[in-house]
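2024-03-11 09:14:02 DEBUG pipeline.ingest accepted 1 chain
2024-03-11 09:14:02 DEBUG pipeline.ingest length=219
2024-03-11 09:14:03 DEBUG pipeline.predict start
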Amino acid sequence: MTPAAPGKSRAAEIAAGLKAQGIEAPAGAAGVLDAYLALLAEWNRAYNLTAVRDPAEMVQRHILDSAAALPCLGGTRMLDAGSGAGLPGLVLAILAPETRWVLAESTGKKARFLAHAVRTLGLGERVSVHAGRVEDYPDTAGFDTVTARALAELPQLAEWLAPLLAPGGRIVALKGRLETARKECAALGSGWRSRINPVNLPGQAAERCIVVLERESTG
């Protein structure tokens, strides 16, 4: 990522990047995202939560990449499967204050970071952490949207996450190359319809896309 211009804060870089994506961030959200990156960089030194070490690079590869899924969300009750360091779930929770989230993460050090970040950033009223496998989450109501980033191929995701969806719910999967996403969509079993949205992030050469999966109507 191009270094910030002299005198320009990282929060301002985040705000500018979101605006370039057509995302109108809530007041103060860029500052909260900046604080989240500071926490992530601090914990990363000891616990190796993400391979990206440079906070400036994290803006592009973590914040803006996660934010690209915002227009694909539906409803207000959300689950982030295999949340890792909070990507994309924690980023999306900050950008969509009307939503409530469960961040599911089975790796202990990552789940502890998520719990710490949720407390530190003041998100505890609408964001909780499930320290365990997403398949084991004890839920009966179902979620409007379940997100996943680099967790598994689409057929496996559909199998794991279908029981957690509310009627009319969707899976939003952040993926890489379009060709790979198309092959995974083709391998889905019957009963699913898919939509692939290419993602173009300024300054990022890697090909990215977002796949939205919804159950086909049986009526």
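2024-03-11 09:14:41 DEBUG pipeline.report The chain is about 35% helix and 20% strand.
2024-03-11 09:14:41 DEBUG pipeline.predict end
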